[in-house]
């Protein structure tokens, strides 16, 4: 997305195709409709600037309607000086609660803080009699005026004006409770509006004393774990909370349990009725992987002992035939007291990786025309010895996390990478860059679907382990194909589809 001149943009403000004109000027591929009241407010804002004889050059380099990739966090107007401040101006078509104005500007400052620059924040409100202006200095909201906005945007100096998306990286604003527990504990993050609404509904229900079992579901990258842990942190203010992790505990799990009073994180293998009755609230992450006996213990704690219970899950991420057959989400949905909330917004995995995975699973899936797979690498190794050298290079020199397939007790080629974390050990975690391998255990069926052979442990599902691995990537994904030339050609054709 490119910056624009506000005066030039607003020449088309009365046209029916204003949105198309805006997208053309900004070189944006989003093609999002612009609401009529937004256009009117922008026109009102520009008119006030022009009435004060602003020079045309100072209306240059405005970033209009920008959304941070992966989060859909939108800014109305930004102006980012290369050697100066970041100017953020939010436009409102009517007056709203000042606390909401302050919260939005505070949240915006968080997402802009990675620039390590002074952030100057305003909200312009169009009213029936004119306008109101508010400023936020990082501490409190204050009444301001259009002259202060004018002074802020009329500075000399170069501004960022092209490829604005490159200024915002996922690692600058996305956190994982497990991989970055310090940031989580310090509250150095924000939930999306959808996450916030779900959280508020659940907490209000609990505060009102209603008897509900809650389910939070969504695909990979929708932020189920962050939401669940954020709710746990809120509940821990006056309740004793247990988070059950249906997988192997990582350092982050243990760190959170040690640092946050009233929260313990335990593995599902240590879960039993006697243990969980020590807590007021029982929250279960990766619930689709629970054993039936552990699931029944949690339900008993709710029904017979009045415990608060919240489950987070994604049935697509089961890893074994046993988990698929048990189908914990269906068991929850059969309960009269159950309420399920769906997270639909992707906030972790970028759209290129999501699209590539979807296309790689089924070759006939057609990605959007404007999708590029620049963050995807497809590599080939003739054998495991060559693969080891490539993996070590990517891990130690390029900053990638290698994830191996979960092995079985039976000796197999999977043992070749035993020294690395496997797909069961990274459940609920995420990494900026991931390298993952595929070999002759995978092939494409005639209809274009990706298929996995029988895993040495017949309970594990190979293609589910594959999905678990590749969906841990947040910024870059590298797939290393070992000795399977036909598979390599197919994946390379997906990668190069638009070249």
From TrEMBL:
Protein's UniProt name: ATP-binding protein
Keywords: ATP-binding, Nucleotide-binding
MF terms in GO: ATP binding
Pfam families: SLFN-g3_helicase (PF09848)
Domain AAA+ ATPase: 210-348
Gene3D superfamilies associated with the record: P-loop containing nucleotide triphosphate hydrolases
Keyword Translocase: no
